[in-house]
Amino acid sequence: MPMVAGLPPPVVKATDVTLAGDVLRVVHDGLPVLASRDAVAGLEELRARHEPFRRFLNAPPNGNRLVNACLLYPAPDGQTAGRFFLASGFGYAPVAGTALMAAAAVALDLRRAPASEGSARIRLDTAAGPAEVLAEVVGGQAVRATWLTRVPRVLRRAQAIACSDGRRRRVSLVASGLPYIVVSAEELGIALDDHDGLGPAAAALSADVGAALPPSAFGLERDYARYLVMVTAPATGKAIRAVWISDLGMVAHSAGGTGALAVVVAAGAGGPTIVSAPGGDFTCEIAGEQASVTAEIRISARHAFYPLAAEVMAAPA
Predict the structure, then answer these.
(1) In this structure, what DSSP letter does residue 202 have?
(2) 215 plus 270 within the same structural domain
(3) CATH assignment at residue 279
(4) Residue 140 domain boundaries
């Protein structure tokens, strides 16, 4: 049942999906009603009017910093498995690789996509355009997923940026569905395992780079208005260690799909490359104009939340 102004809020139903150490909460019932059937306009509507709902999903007692939420709406035209929006702790956004993979798994579970044994191709509508996920299916459930997308765009490579602490740091800027800064832990001056130090340092770097070269300078403000940060350590063989950090200094357990691809492209890696984060690994591959991110995946929990009206109702139009 959708959320309608003037009526008590419906039960919000969600399914948790675990992959590469990340937990994605796919919300598929009790969603805010969107006036538009278009995903781009829907994203703007969510940002303008439904911040309370995003906070309800991500803040305690319902959410926590290790869980990222996304929204899976039914497809208005029946041509895809649904409309997808990221609704994570850092904001509404058009895509996130792990969340897309999780939403595809839930679409199979809800029978919104054909779940033929062996493999399935799930298409979703997003504000960044059509998205596609390949799933390996066993017993009607996805056990492995691959997000297929275009090769990320390198906006700047090894660009020296004057920072507010007086230092100059070399960073790469990558658009992989979200705007990223990719920087080495050595350049940042903090060990990759020092998460308490990485959070504020990455937030400061995001602000400094955003002041010098904002995402809007590259036409990325619809994706997200500020840079997310991937901090990396030197590669060992074909594995690159990385930590994902939001512009607010939130350190994630996972590298994320978009983050993993940003790291691989910034490093100029070819062939299958493992991006290793604290929670688990992704396998990324660049082949011509196509990129892919693969991880093991499983449904791990189902939830029903009972919100109060004040927690989820839209802001006045």
Answers:
(1) H
(2) yes
(3) 3.10.310.10
(4) 12-149+297-312
Please tell me the total count of domains within the chain.
Answer: 2
Q: How far apart are CA 119 and CA 135, in angstroms?
A: 6
CB-based contact 208:173 (threshold 8 Å): no
Could you tell me which of 158, 156, 92 has the C-alpha nearest to residue 128?
92
State pLDDT tens for residues 195-243.
999 999 999 999 999 999 999 999 998 888 999 999 999 877 768 999 9
Two tokens at 209?
């780079």
- Whether the bond between 215 and the residue before it is cis, its omega within 30 degrees of 0, is no
Q: What is the DSSP letter of 3?
A: B
169 and 131 in a common domain: no
Phi, psi of 147, rounded to the nearest 5 degrees: -85, 125
DSSP letter assigned to residue 217: G
**What is the rounded distance in angstroms from the CA atom of residue 40 to the CA atom of residue 129?**
9
Residues 277-286 pLDDT 10s: 988 899 999 9
For position 266, what pLDDT does the model report? 94
pLDDT by residue (tens digit) across 142-178? 999 999 999 999 999 999 999 999 999 999 999 998 9
Residue 94 CB partners (closer than 8 Å, separation 6+)? 39, 43, 85, 86, 126, 127, 128, 177, 222, 223
**What does the CA dihedral 233, 187, 292, 134 come to, rounded to 10 degrees?**
70
- How many residues are listed for the chain in this entry? 317
